[in-house]
Predict the structure.
Amino acid sequence: MIFGIFKNMLSKVPEGYTRFKGEYHSGEADYLYREEHGHRIFHGPFSYVQKGNSDYIIKGEYVDNLKQGQWKFTRKNYERNSDFMVTFKDGRMTGPFVYKGTVTNIVANKIPFEIAMNLRDGLIVGDIVGLLDGRPFRGYCNEQGMADGKWTLESYNNDDHMECEEWDNGVFIREYERSTKTNSVKKMSTRLRAKLNDLLDNECNRLLQIVPRGTNGGLFLHVMRAESK
């Protein structure tokens, strides 16, 4: 909702506040602030645009210098397009997280990537669903943000094979390919947790670091693991 009324909110500057519009870090920002003891207190809608080999757009809202509500992050270049939404509560990443993006391969096909999950104080908790390399994917993290249970990635071309990983409270158990028709299993390297973390590192964590102001509890999304038993 904040994105649809963003311009109207910035056009009305409340008493005691100042609107800034100009250079900010490596791009340009537009935001409202008030002065307190020589420091700027961000309060209200915020937008950031950075142009270059990749174009970045970040929009959200501050409440008394802390990120609050939904923030949207966008990156676009000739190879990758990424959009994701993060929910903040008092500066902490808490609530729904939704990512959608495409990667253009060497034959100019756009491969979709999608992730939907929930965050609690910066930890990934609960079910993780979406697409990796255009393939349906499922995973799960426990209350401590550790990989847990069975993770799956369907094979290409909708055949009868599925890549699987099994975890126990962050401890890796085994990885294999399973036939959905015969239930037969053969050993293979799957890297499902690693693939998800690669996506989060390359497409999300870098953007989260561009505007670190107003954050409590860190800005790094990662599915954790424990030492082997």
Q: What stands out?
A: Residues 1-5 have pLDDT under 50 and may be disordered. DSSP finds two helices and 14 strands in the chain.
